[in-house]
Structure formats: C-alpha cells, structure tokens
Amino acid sequence: MLPDFNRLKVFYYIFLKKSVVNAAGKLNITASAVSQTLNKLESELNVLLFTRLHKKLVPTWAGHQLFEILNPFINDLEKGIKHIRQAKQIPSGMLRIGSPIEFGKSYLPGLFSSFRKKYPEVVFDMKLGDPTEVFPLIKSGDLDFGLVDIFLTRDQVFEDFGIYSIDPLIDEEVIMACSKEYYVREINGDHSFKNLAIKEFLSYQKSSLTLMNWFKHHFKKAPVNLNRVMTVDNHQAVINGIKNQLGMGVIASHIVRKDIKQGRIIPIKTPSKDVINTISLVQLQDKEPSLTEKTFINFLTKDILSSGTLKTFINIS
Amino acid sequence: MLPDFNRLKVFYYIFLKKSVVNAAGKLNITASAVSQTLNKLESELNVLLFTRLHKKLVPTWAGHQLFEILNPFINDLEKGIKHIRQAKQIPSGMLRIGSPIEFGKSYLPGLFSSFRKKYPEVVFDMKLGDPTEVFPLIKSGDLDFGLVDIFLTRDQVFEDFGIYSIDPLIDEEVIMACSKEYYVREINGDHSFKNLAIKEFLSYQKSSLTLMNWFKHHFKKAPVNLNRVMTVDNHQAVINGIKNQLGMGVIASHIVRKDIKQGRIIPIKTPSKDVINTISLVQLQDKEPSLTEKTFINFLTKDILSSGTLKTFINIS
DNA sequence: ATCTTAGGCTAACTATTACTAATGCTACCG
DNA sequence: CGGTAGCATTAGTAATAGTTAGCCTAAGAT
Fold this sequence. Notes:
2 copies of one chain form a homodimer. By secondary structure, chain A is an alpha/beta fold.
C-alpha cells in the first residue's frame, strides 16, 4: 500500500530542485541513482510524477499532490529532529512525575516554575496519588519517576521492590493531633489505643491509610474501623477541621508548629517516637535517566537541601 | 541530517502496536528485522525512542514527539495515494488550460460547469492569453494543453512547431467592421489600404496583432502604425465601441450577424475571402495525456460538434 | 554548421544493508 | 516450576541501492 519512504525523500528533492542532477547533489548520490529511484517510485505508485521535457522536469498533478503531502511533513520532521537532538544538550520535553497529593499540590508547582525559568523547554505532567498508584505507573513507564511517602508503604508488600531505586529526599515528622478544646473534652490524657480508636477522624485521602499507619506504628496494630467524619484531599482543610474541633487527623508537624507552640493544637504523644514520613524519589533501577530527568532531580534535591528541610514547602502550605 | 525514512515507517508501526512482534506482523518481516531497525534509528537520531521494560515498550518523550510528526503524515499519505491512484480510474485533479481571452471567458466556464457535474473531482486553472503566451507555457509544461487562435499565428514563426500536435476545433469568420454612420462618414466605399489604415481602431488586446493580421491577410502588408482609440480585453466592449462610432474593429462575424443583417454594422469587404479564424487544440506531441485530459478533450469536442459550430459560444457572447 | 555542454535515461556491475534463521534471555502465567 | 511470550543478538544470505560507463537530445557557444 504505502510506497518506499526513502523514495519519497528522493522525490521531494527532485521536486524542490526540479532537476535530477541537483537533487543528486543534495542527496550526495549520483544522478543515475536518483533517476532510477524516481522511476521505481512512479511504477510503485503506478502514476507519472513528472512530465519529461528534455532537460526539464515538470510536475504532473499527481506530483504536485504528493509534494503537498511531503512538504509539511519534512519541514516538521526537520524541526522535530532538531528539537529532539537538542534535548541531549539542554533539558527539554515533558517530565511525567508522580507525587503525593499534598506535596505535589503545594511544593512542586513553585519548583516547576523556578525550574522553567532556567529551562523553559521543559513541561510537566504531574500525577497526584498514593504510592499504590504511583509505583505501577513508574513500572509501566507512564511516569518518568515518582515521589512517594515511604511511611505509607512501610507495611505494604511490593513483590518486585528490586526493580526500583529509592532515595530519601525529605523527612517530616508525622503526628496525630487535635484542637485544644477537643483534647480536653475527648482525650484528656488518655492516649490508649482503646480510647483513641473510637474518636472522630479527618482524612485527606480516600483511603484511611495514613491514619491506619499511624496506629500501626504506635500500637503495632490498626483499628478495624475508623469514624471518618471528613475526607478531603487538602491538607489545609484537614488542619482547619482540627482547629474547628471536628476531630483528629494525621499531619506533618512542621506545618502546625506555631499552633502547637501556642497550644491551639495538641499532638498526641505515645511512648514510641514520632513517625518519620520520608518522601523518597523512586526511579526504575535499570532505566538510564535522560538529561532532563537528571537535571530536574538535581534541581529538586538542591532546592530541598538549600531550603533547610522543606522551608519552601512549609511556607507555601 | 534526516534519518532513513523507511526506519521511520517501521518506528511508526512499533509505536502504534507498542510491540516489536506486532509491528513485524504488520510489516510482513521478522521481529528481528524490526528490532534492528529500531536500534539503528535510535542510534541515527542519537536518542532513545522507547524505554525497554522487559516485554513492554514504553515511548519516551522523544518517541512521542516523533510519532506526533509521523502520524498525520502517514494518514495524509494514505489518503493522498488513494486519491492519486483513483485518478487513474476516474478523472480528477487539476486541468491547466490555456485559451484565447474571449473564448475562455465566454464559453469555457459553462463547459467547465457541465463537465464538473459529471466529474466533480476535476478543477480547472485557466490561463487567458495570446498564442504567443500560451505556446511557451505548453512547452514548459505549465499548461496541460491550450486552445489557440491559429489565425493570429499564421505568420508568426515557431521554430519548434513539430513538438506540438494541433487539431482544429472551431472555425469562425473574422471581419473588420464599423457602424453604418462611421462607414458613411469615413469609408464610403473606399476600401483601399491607404484609406483604411488611417482610421480609428478598437482593439481587444494589448497588442494590435488581430488588426495587423487582418491587414496582412487582405493586403499582404501591414500598416506601420494604427491609431488605436480604445483597447479593452472584452469583445462586447469592442462591439459597443463600433456601434457608437468610435472606430473600426476586428470581430467574429457570427456575433454581430443580426446587426449586419439590419444594417447597423457594416463589414469591410475586399477582393480576398474573409479570414477564417480557427481555434485549435494544442498539445505536446510526445506527452501522453492523462485520463482526465483525454476525458475533458473528448467532452469539449463532443460539445462543440453537438452545438453546431459554436452555438453555445455565440449565445453566451 | 559544428562543437560543446547540460540534463536525463539505461544497462550492467558492485557494495551496502535489510532481512532471516537460530539462539539466548527474562518476566509472567497457569 | 516448566512453558510461553516478547525482545535482543549474531552470523550469514538475499535484496537493492548506488556506481560507472555510455547514449541521447536540446540549447548555447564557437
């Protein structure tokens, strides 16, 4: 059905130059080869592309038609190839990144913005979600790399963990907290599993993974069912829920440091140390990262280090 | 600079199927060949097009980019090829036709219209002008064929007359004429060269070729200079000029038959017979006409024959 | 007129390379 | 835990793209 594509390329140059000899020069082959190629193409398509007028080639209608198809393609291709090639020199193209919801919403857009100031050729495609969503997408190649809350996955099983490389980026203390009023009314010093498990909870994900994990970490067991009174994919909403005595929620401590200091929010302490939630960079072990990826990851880690444990993240949140 | 085009075609199918094996099936070659082709293309472009994930190929950004360029092209190409191929079955495409101004203006549009009713795929590009303009364009291949007033070229020299095939289509009597009043006032029976050459003339072309040829035909010589009082590329305007006693003009007799009969317009007779202006079909001798051309020329001659010596042409004029 | 140049076509030979067949590797599936 | 599916690799062969040489014709040049 489709003709030999290289013959189309030759035709393109013949048409451009209206000459076999000139096309041959352009293509760095002999005129004979060009002539033969043209004949083959014509018999392949079973149509005359040029009327031969001694020393002149005049395109037929079919020739014109074919050129009209080829011309934009070859222009696009030249530009495209140049573009693709330059991506080896300077970062460009699309980065597809998986991220925890809150981190992706609050911190990354600002980072993207400053990255793009330096590398305007780069665009981003961000997938917000649980590690349970992000890991498979990395594996399937639909994400270039991911940022995941390792805390959430500590107890989850990934059979093929070996295929990933996981580098910790950020540590954040994760606490269970409620408002002062709620604490006085509902907890009042009783930090036992039995007491805590029956309270109202705020969750910022569809699943109550975060909450469950908090219990597992502190009591080595998880409650069967939690009374979730509000679910919302927004950290700030959870904090506001806490402040308004809606219930208890798991949050990063630094976000509410001021509130804790001033006694408006009370963290629930237990004998075990606070959970450390590690946001880690997850990549495919055996996939060589592109220049763009390497540059961005470098940029990301630098930014995190320089801003002293998530200053930027905190401020924006 | 540009990669091997056939490799692009292979890439296209790999991308479509996201599989070397399936692409191989589509292309009727072995998977090995496809794999090798892909590797060659990648090293040619110096870029990874797919990340290999064991049994899965996931396009990189570069792969996506390349596909975005190829996809529309291949779609267009498939449609285009189909179109070009069908032009062998039914007339389609563009016919570039040269024609005398008046004939092309008055007669051809109507003919095009009825032709297109039968063959709607055909479009026309008409070049109106002298044989001196039309012949070179046929020779250079910029016109598929031409219609020319042979009368005008009788005495003109074309060195390479042999390269054309010339078939008479229509004969028309050409006369020099003026209004009754102008005749009485200026001519009054004196049809001598000396008397006629000094009158006012109307010409419907930039050059006064037509007028000159009339003199050459009737007196075997042409006046050095003619007093052209109006030049306009419209036959009807010339006739109106004649009727309004602006001067004398050369016109086809059938157009003004009624006026002559009723004595409003007087033809200038001389001992020699009236000029016969033959409109002929001119084609390049050694150029095989396409189906579209043959069909149209057939249609044209049939129409002329059936309408009895230019009935249509006359009516419209 | 005759020669020269330019552009294109063809035929036969040569060199490249596209393709195959055979084999190996590894994740996934029952 | 074999069996299968899918891709990669290698070496050898078949196909074809390209070269060289020679011919033809129209236009310019001498």
